[in-house]
Amino acid sequence: MGFHSILFERPKDGPPSGDVDEPDFFGDLNLDQFVTDVTRGLDEYNLTPFFRTELNGESAVRYRHEVMRDLDNPDVLLPVQAFALVMRKVRACLGDVQKFYYKPQKQWWFLEAASRYCQGMLAFSSQLTDARPPSRGLKAFSVWLKEYVDSEAFISLSRDIDETRSALAGVRYSIHLHGSAVTVLNYNEEGDYSTYVLHLFERFKQGEARDHRVAQKDWPEMNHVEAQILDCVAELNPQPFLLLEAFCGNHADFLDPTIAAFDREIQFYIAYRSYIQLCRDAGLTFSYPIVSAESKAVRCNGTFDLVLAHKLCTDKVYVVCNDFCLDGPERIFVVSGPNNGGKTTFARTFGQLHFLARLGLPVPGRDSHLFLYDRLFAHFEREENTLDMRGKLQDDLMRMHGILKASTASSIILMNEIFSSTTLADALFLCRQIIGEIMERDALCVCVTFIEELARLGPQTVSMVSEINPDRPSVRTFRVRRRPADGRAYALSIAEQYGLTYERIRERLAS
User: Fold this and answer.
1) CATH for 287-510?
2) Which parts pass through the membrane (predicted)?
3) pTM beyond 0.85
4) Is the pLDDT of residue 48 over 70?
């Protein structure tokens, strides 16, 4: 069984070479914040390109689902985490090699890095074999790793490490201090002088004394005196140090590229698991979506904006979840309702879900069926740019023209409060033309709008309304329900806000 990558099922899928540009929709969907947060503290792995690279097939998505499910098993997760810790220590040792100045010290830390590497690979191979992960990715890697630790190259590396460490461990020497003079001598069965001193003072002991010893920290750095002592020891015992120098030359590239790539790529899963754990601890649900490049019947229950939920869970604030479903000829959500009621959040959630699904990751919510789109487009309201000499209406039109020109029947289009700078009649006319084009193209779409008539354009459109508290119309519930839009709740909310309800007017007239 061959092994290519723990992230990419086939070589043509990835990994990406170099940096990957941030998709245009990232800012509108707050996915730029997501990538920043999920990769925080993991700069050494350079995970950002992985979180920007979308997968292109259903099988590629399932490949990652399998690996992520394996990592839900502690028998697999714990060895993987232990492996990652070993590799961090190996890199730390190799980093010290670059920082140190004295040659024997650099060589020793290189030997230490190789030693930790071999011990870690043997332990990881044994633990992974015992865990028997069923995913295609980890199963193939487990087979490859077993073959690697059984290979002649790895066995030779381990044997040379043991031989070199054994030779260095056999070095014995004495130091004679006289004033500022330091003399290094070969060990010649001299007695332990500390034992003699302790025995000499034993006669004066009158009881248990306080321990005044100070623990000395074993810093890896050496001062010039220690370095000269080490040079003298090497002159007195040349063979072990020649063996150390030969080891460093013969195994300069001991770190296998496949191991290094696995160490980096597995962090993609670990990082996402760590990011969503805060939401899971708060009781929020994640699921592995069924993805399809053919069926546009999409749904998800109990879903939420992942970036917003992560912030709310950090502050221990309750997260409102919503459901959605498109079936049969339905393709377009038309979301209306009062301002600050969760409409934009719903659009972001829809986009985030599909993007995370295309990364092969668990998505917020349960019973999720999502579409494997070819491109995702987002047109969210932006401040007018005075530098391009275009008005806001013209800018909206040009952006939508570019989206419609580039989109296909397999695209997803998210529109949020477009044409708000023009009259209702003009906005209705323009939105009808654009949604008509999307309907003709048969693309999936979420349209957040104040124009409720758009929800009645045809069987492809579905009305979603952000609700308010019926007892307190000014209070938003942040729930977006599937129901016809009638504008009454919105009107009642505005009337309540400005004291224009029937009851308030009667009170003022009576007074």
Assistant:
1) 3.40.50.300
2) none
3) yes
4) yes
